Amino acid sequence: MLNAAVKTPIHVSIDPFPRSFYTRPALLVARELLGARLVRILDGSVLAGIIVETEAYQGEEDMGCHAHVGRTPRTEVMYGPAGHAYIYFTYGMHWLLNAVTGEIGEPAAVLIRAILPVSGLDRMELFRPRPAKRTDNNPARGWTDGPAKICQALHLAKAQNTADLCDLNSGLGISPATVIPEDQVIIGPRVGLFTVPEPWKSIPWRLRVKETYLAHLFKTFSNC
DNA sequence: AGCACGATGCTCT
DNA sequence: GAGCATCGTGCTT
């Protein structure tokens, strides 16, 4: 049943994506970040997970994008060079991780919404306990399946805002790992944009890997 | 399995 | 002072 998936080539790389990877439209980057490996270096040890859900936020005209209000101290990083982290605080208690995309002066970013933990799980579990009820078919369930959960598990917050994702010395990066087949991707509207007007509220810029594919990915990349 | 709601503090007007 | 790119709990199916 997953024959096609099993044959999917795997190219786990130490090297992060180059800046040119991010210097493209957010939706395209969001699609290609599915299956990539998010890497966090903390005190010399590696925490990593395969990205399985993303959202694109593109430009000042996108009413769902924070940059729709223009340049502010918070949104400034989105106007800078692509490939940097945009990490911001929301709901009084949560940090969320984005990758800045597009050309300089053109604010855009990809929100990383879910990862499948593959390296440093013990360490991640200290920062963010794994739920008591675990499911074999989706190891991320209730653990790293939300944007704020990822920041907890990887110990990401204000200090990592603007970190260069193209240089692992920054402590944070994203590397190629595998390509998710098109038939394993679910496309839909972005989450949580309650007061955002149409068409931005419903535009299908949320991308996620089908749950039935996660167990296979987890097995393939465990300890990578 | 799915909905409702309260927590909690930064960011911008 | 209002509004949040959310999460966890507790309740209902």
Quickly describe the structure.
The chain is of the alpha+beta class and 224 residues long.
Features:
8 strands, alpha+beta, 224 residues, DNA-binding
Outline the structure in words.
This protein is of the alpha+beta class and 224 residues long. 20% of the residues lie in helices and 25% in strands. The chain contains seven helices and eight strands; from the N terminus they run H-H-H-E-E-H-E-E-E-H-H-E-E-E-H. Strands 1, 2, 3, 4, 5, 6, 7 and 8 form an eight-stranded antiparallel β-sheet that branches. A hairpin with a 7-residue loop joins strand 4 and strand 5. It is globular, with a radius of gyration of 16 Å. The N terminus is likely disordered. The structure holds a DNA duplex (13 and 13 nucleotides).
| Percentage of residues in helical conformation | 10-25%
Point out poorly predicted stretches.
1-7
For the secondary structure, the number of strands is 8
Helix and strand succession?
HHHEEHEEEHHEEEH
Would you tell me the overall average pLDDT?
93
Chain oligomer state: single chain
Number of H/I helices: 7
> What percentage of amino acids are in beta strands?
25-35%
Major sheet characteristics: 8 strands, antiparallel
Form type: globular
Helical/strand content category: alpha+beta
- End-to-end Cα distance: 24 Å
What Rg do the Cα atoms give? 16 Å
